[in-house]
Structure formats: C-alpha cells, structure tokens
Amino acid sequence: xxxVKHPERLARFVEKCLIDGVELIAVVGDGCVEIEGxxxxxxxxxxxxxxxxxxxxxxxxxxxxxxxxxxxxxFTDGENRVELVSL
Length: 87
Prior knowledge:
two-stranded parallel sheet
C-alpha cells in the first residue's frame, strides 16, 4: 500500500493538475517512487491523449527542502509557482 493519506484524492488531484496546466509534480517521502508511478499512470491513461503531460519526479531519501528547492528552480521565468500539497 502506498502511504497516501487519502488515496481516493490522487486521481482528482492529477486531473486538476492537468486542467490547471501544472508542469511538474515532485513527490517526496515514504513510497514516493511508487506514488510517482501511480501519478504517471493517471496522467498517461490509455495513451490516446497526447495532450496529457506533466513531468514527474520522486525524491526518495531526500529532505523536503531539497525537493522544494529543485521545484523552485524548475521554472525559468522567475515566477515562484511552487505549492506544497499533502494527499
């Protein structure tokens, strides 16, 4: 079992990210590699919609602060659009 506090929210979260134009989902914490895989599966679906794309990353054994720093430099336009979400 992947340690997501509310697993039923993951699909809704991913769909909202797609609608909102999110560019990066970085996952941190226990089971983050598995959660990233689930998110990738939700994004790709059956593979028929090439518009469904978000870059994902997982950060096992990394402090949250390091993952947040990586996410902050992901954007080159200088606008800080990093948001911490806990599911």
